Amino acid sequence: MFTLMGHGIGTDIIIAKAWVNMYFSGLEIRYSEISDSEITSEIGRLRRAIGMLDKDFKDISESFKNSKTGDFDNLLDSHRLIINDPLLIVETEKRIAESLINAECALVRQLDFIVEQFSKISNPYFQERKIDVEQIVGQLVKKLSLIDHIQNPRKPDAELADKNEASWICLSDQMSINEISKFIKEGVKGFAIESGSPTSHLATLFKSLEIPAILGLQEHNELVEHGERVILDSESGVLLAGLDSYILAEYQERIRKGVQKKQKLKVFVNVPCQTKNQVDIGLMANIENPKEVIKAIELGVSGIGLFRTEFLFLEKNKILSEDEQFEAYKHVVEALNPLPVVIRTLDLGADKLPSSLSSKFTKDSNPALGQRGIRFSLENPDFFKVQINAILRASKFGNVKIMLPLITEKEEIIKAKQLIYQSLHNVSETYCYDLNTPAIGAMIEVPSAAITIESLIPHIDFASLGTNDLIQYTLAIDRTNNKVSHLYNPGHPAVQFLIENVIKSCIRENCPVSICGELANDIVQTKKFFQMGLREVSTNVSDILKMKEAISKITL
Ligand code: PEP
Ligand code: MG
User: Mean pLDDT, the chain, as a whole number?
Assistant: First the structure.
């Protein structure tokens, strides 16, 4: 038995088969020989991989149907031409049949041949096509590997089988947000990933989906076998492999106790959120998906303190129309009415970039410092207005507040408000609605905003501290980089100074203030800020009861 450590995301333990999904670096491929009788099925594998990739391209192109993205369309078309080009496909099939080798190997040999031909031509056009072909072959190799994983999972040891068994735990060196749903559909119930940190957006997504995970896992390449049973303990961030019956029994007992613990927390469902000495605390929920509202309401939240709308785009991997966005917002707003719903405008960019939108973004060498959040919205006002129209239409059905992400100075708020007022006028006229101007607030998550909060307050109706980004930018630690995640320190004097400055200034100026970053579910930290007068926090739905219990034990 051995263990691999990382940062745990969640509280659950699961036992399941390992789905080892290492991404290929370069084109190191599996070489194998096949027999005559396997030619047809090997060609079938190749065709299935081509079909899957072609479908990916079609889906992306579909999501761009209504937008003018000439260059990107051309690129997609050229890639689709390559995967249907006989020089690549027919010739690779021939190699499989004639040399009796597997599809990966035949593909790479054909790639070498094509590259050699292109190298003889100095025309830059062919040099560019060479890169395209290399990329396509790389993607086809990944698809072939995916097909193998789906088709040939090694069966779990029947002797050790147990009713607590989930289906799969996906182990991977890296993972992007928009890939998660694909794995879940294949039966993955937990993730253990080498990249990422506890405050990365990947962690946010896992919490929102209530999927146990480990991020920043120690390197596992070749240590864990595909199909092997493993234990994922998301509370302590430990992945156990090479299991024996003793360790399995131990963890099955822990799973049972975990269920009991969750059951006990249910007593906090219908009680107000108060400290031991009856000070009321507003406990709001952070959501990424409209489906989460039912659970949030059941748990008795006092509103939605942060609706991360960009996750709607990430989940569907497409640009949502005004009507689609309106339906999503209306669902949440109506369900919560009369409780408030703080809808944050799109915080796209950096690690939150659906592939369907990547052409709209410049390739930043330092994405966290690049075109993200309000910067993207102000540079793409037509895009921004579509979202604002949808939010304003939804505001007719309840209590909506609008929040602007990644604010660094008051000018951004002023510009955004101008666009919001224009939309308010248009929506009121178009739909004959008598709309009130919604409260407009700012995320305080960049040090410049926290330091100069007094200059922002006259322009906002509320402020919400985004401590995940505030800590990232204050301590210069990339949220997505597990190599520096141990430096994440909410107790750092600089972080404390900034949070204190925001809370005290807002209270002095009568500007409602809350915390919506991960720090909101850390009672040791929040207690200090409650003592300064903070009275509202917003946290993940999965942490609501735990936080209510913790608040009930403190005295202010
Ligand atoms: C934050 O930065 O603390 C925050 C709540 O926003 P996000 O995690 O979505 O960046
Ligand atoms: Mg943020």
Answer: 88
Binned at pLDDT 50, 70 and 90, residue 63 comes out as low
Residue 26 clears pLDDT 50, i.e. is over it: no
Indicate the pTM of the whole model.
0.74
Q: Which mutation among 202, 204, 522 tests ligand 1's pocket best, with the greatest number of atoms within 8 A of CB?
A: 204
**pLDDT tens digits for 488-538?**
999 999 999 999 999 999 999 999 999 999 999 999 999 999 999 999 999
Q: Give the model confidence (pLDDT) of 110-158 as tens digits.
A: 988 888 888 777 666 666 677 778 878 888 887 887 777 666 644 444 4
Looking at CATH, the fold of the domain delimited by 269-552 is given as TIM Barrel (3.20.20)
* Confidence band, pLDDT 50/70/90 cuts, at residue 65: low
Q: What is the pLDDT of residues 197-228, one digit of tens each?
A: 888 888 988 998 999 999 999 877 668 887 88
18 Cβ contact list (under 8 Å, min separation 6)? 168, 169, 171, 224, 225, 226, 227, 228, 229, 230, 241
Q: Distance between CA 372 and CA 507 in Å, rounded?
A: 29
**Among all ligands shown, which has an atom nearest to the Cα of 467?**
1
Architecture of domain 2-25+154-262: 3-Layer(bba) Sandwich (3.50)
Q: Which region, left, alpha or beta, applies to residue 12 given φ > 0 means left and ψ of -120 to 50 means alpha?
A: beta
Residue 471: which region, alpha, beta or left (left: phi > 0; alpha: psi -120 to 50)?
A: alpha
Query: What's the alpha-carbon Rg for the chain, to the nearest Å?
Result: 26
Phi, psi of 29 (to 5 degrees): -120, 160
Query: Which pLDDT does position 154 carry in this prediction?
Result: 44
Question: Of 529, 539, 284, which is closest to residue 401 (Cα–Cα)?
Answer: 284
CATH numeric code, 31-148:
1.10.274.10
Considering only CA atoms, which residue is closest to atom 6 of ligand 1?
466
| Long-range pairs for 494-498: beta carbons < 8 A, 24 or more residues apart | 495/467, 495/470, 495/471, 496/528, 498/447, 498/450, 498/451, 498/470, 498/474
Active-site residues, by number, are 201, 516
* Chain CA centroid to CA 310, Å: 9
Distance 297 CA to ligand 2 centre (A): 24
Ligand 1 atom with the smallest distance to the CA of 201 is 8
Assign 24 to helix, strand or coil: coil
Which residue is closest in CA terms to ligand 1's atom 4?
466
Probe residue for ligand 1, chosen from 347, 348, 369, 521 as the CB with the greatest number of ligand atoms within 8 Å: 347
Per-domain boundaries in the chain: 2-25+154-262, 31-148, 269-552
Q: Quote the tokens at residue 512.
A: 């409602």
Ligand closest in space to the Cα of 516 = 1
Question: Which helix (H) or strand (E) element contains residue 307?
Answer: strand 304-308
Ligand 1 mean position to 199 CA, how many Å?
8
Higher pLDDT, 119 or 371: 371
* Residue ranges around ligand 1 (CB below 6 Å): 204, 306, 308, 347, 445, 466-469, 516-517
Q: How far is the CA of 525 from the centre of ligand 2 (A)?
A: 18
Residue 466 alpha carbon, nearest atom of ligand 1: 3
Q: How far apart are the CA of 478 and the centre of ligand 1, in A?
A: 13
